[in-house]
Design brief:
By secondary structure, this protein is mainly beta. It contains three helices and 20 strands. The chain has helices at 189-192, 216-220, 266-278, and strands at residues 6-9, 12-18, 32-36, 58-65, 68-70, 75-77, 81-83, 90-100, 103-112, 115-128, 133-144, 150-153, 167-171, 180-182, 200-203, 207-213, 223-226, 232-235, 243-245, 250-261.
Amino acid sequence: MTESPVLSAAGRPVGRYVTRPELPGRLSPRPYLHPVTTLAGTAVTELSPADHPHHLGVGVAVPDVEGHNFWGGRTFVRDQGPTELDNHGAQRHVAFQLRDPDGFVEELRWVAARGELLHERRTVAATELGDAAWALDFTFALTNTTPDTLSVGSPATNGRPGAAYGGFFWRARKEAEAPEVFTPDAEGEEQVHGRTAEWLALAGSTWTLVFAGATDATRRDPWFVRTAEYPGVGSSLAHTERVAIGPGDTLVRRVVTVVADGRLDRTEAAALIRKAVAQ
């Protein structure tokens, strides 16, 4: 049985999930979704782009789990800056508990030099929203399998202001023009980055992505947004403070993303994401 299942929505393929990528260790190998497409076939993800080779489509990436890098690339060290360290971890596919054309439930191990740190259960589902849109429902549950409390951080908690990336992350399609980004009451990277919002939309030339936290805990996480340097959106696990996961405890986050053809306005984006989260 193939280990790279294809997700379908409205009877069309909209994403490929790669479970065992062949990647160098410094990219923090991990399963990812790429390519993800609109129903019309427009790709809305990028894999290992030249500007950030460790950006891998859609997935979960965390730059600091007890000092281990599950994001890839350099590690931000306080009072030193981005530094190349031999501290990369990897997310290893264990098994699918459920596999259907429109989704799956997967078990993963987060391993580093000291062994397994976390066990993850990942649930992914694709849902049709109409002729020109579908939704990706992505939940990850991280359980601490060590006897000690694990501390999760970000470059921001390690001293780099505005760089609270880590958690769910979507590296979007890069085009000649930077995409527009807006929330229900703000627009532009400077106004939406690092803030919470009911939903956040990224609109490219012929496509729109609309993201929303689908649990109370996820909605409390601010959005990490880039448009000028590169197009990417994430939900920040460790924005201003490190997050502790006790032995045997589980951290859960759920993000729903509308993938639409065309450039949606605020009213259209709001209607679609509310429909997607309610399903």
